[in-house]
Amino acid sequence: MSRTRIYSEVDFTKDGKQSAFLRLPHSVHRSAYGWLPMPITCIKNGKGPTVLLVSGNHGDEYEGQVTLMKLTRRLQADDVKGRIIILSAANYPAAMAGMRTSPIDQGNLNRTFPGNPDGGPTAMIAHFIESVLLPMADVTVDLHSGGSSLMYIPSALARRAKSKADRANTIKLMEVFGAPVSMLIDAPQGEDRTLTGGAERVGVLHMGTELGGSGTVTPGALAVAEKGTARLLDHFGVLRKPLHNEKSGKTRLVVVAGPSYYTYAPDNGLFEPYVELGDDVRAGQAAGAVHFPDTPWREPTIAHFERDGVVVCKRIPGRTERGDCLFHLGSDYSEK
Ligand SMILES: [Zn+2]
Known about the structure:
By secondary structure, the chain is an alpha+beta fold.
């Protein structure tokens, strides 16, 4: 495979704070020699770890984007010991459009890793992250949320590693982040085509989030994101002094261990949820009804939970189609 075709205006080896663009070649009718300007910031000050912070991997997930834009402006070279790289609009065309996927090539960045330098814009971005940014990093944090169609209890998430030592490392990161819920996931959505998958291939410690969603930003979710990210940077040893001194609250550690944790729409129609975020539910319990506006005299189809758990995620839009995720659960987890 050839090298990246994305040119970085930022010199990642240089000390100081640089904010500039990654130039993604984009030759189109209105601009023959044009490029897409992907904003990136590199703040480097001497020796220390490299932390890669990412948001806008999905363009309609805004809490992480706001958090990293504020951090981009706040952090100066004097605050840093090592290097912090901030990519706040990772799938730039999607972030500019406020969409999960790119309007240029319909690419879902977090289903495109390891990417392709000879592919469309989304594949080129995935390839740049996995082949250029991740190899520079000791740790990466990818800030997601529920996007337009889902809403989460503000959560951290990580894969449930096979070894106890690796699990302890990721649980520690989630405890430092301090979201109300922390999810260990066995069979992640997107499998190894995600930034997480790339981080595992490159051997970089990784943590993600699901901060809220429904295409909004709330003060509550933002506070979780900002305070948690600042605590993580301090924990990684990349700050000269902490950005704040607020300790993390207690997080509810849950596991999401496969398809039985997800409830899907059994039919096309209008979705009536029966439960809310944070509710504890039982296997077999009715989760919601799908009504049929075209035949209102027809009895609705009822969706059921397949297992016990706590509702950590729910669908937002009222209209639904068979196969849409309505809810997903977590179940309490302890290493002991
Ligand atoms: Zn996402």
